[in-house]
Amino acid sequence: MSRSLRSFGELVVIVATALFFALAIQAYAVKPFVIPTASMVPTLEPGQRVLVDRFSHRIGGDPKLNDITVFMPPRGAESAGGQCAIAGEGPSYDGGPLSRRSCTRSTSGTGPRACIKRVVGMPGDRIAVRDGHVIRNGRRAAEPFAAACGGGPACDLDAIVIPAGHYFLMGDNRGNSADSRYWGPVRRAQIIGRAVATFWPPERVGGA
User: Exposed, middle or buried: residue 159 (CB in 10 Å: 0-12, 13-18, 19+)?
Assistant: First the structure.
């Protein structure tokens, strides 16, 4: 075998190995995610890029309160009006509220696109919403990151209890976020990982 052919073969092996490890890291450890909407403003802007820690969730670590979390929403969450497992629950996107409380459970299956929101309710918590702010187990949560709600249909909702193995997630932009208020708590199995750092744009590099 000629020297040039051997060198080319070594290069192919190196590139293939690097590609394998890059894909493995994305699949099992850390994955980049682009913020798709304004639902997390002012914390995260549309187009901002974050790194998501998938590894800790894969080895059994559960989400924690106030984690900024990437997840697959329930099936139907992308539809106008949202979807609940129980007909008539949850506020409406484009009309008066269907009821005065959030969905108590979500539809089965997952939507087509990952979302990013903040964990505001843990399994067993009693969650209500007043003027866009979370009332957790009877006490208003400290939420310096939350933007004003603006009086929309999901700004004031009566309490529900989060089922075991589920988490209540809301965007920081309380008046412009489709979240668990509309389509219910999210199952643990649908949570991908926690946003741990921002890497783009350069002026916003740092912790998520």
Answer: middle
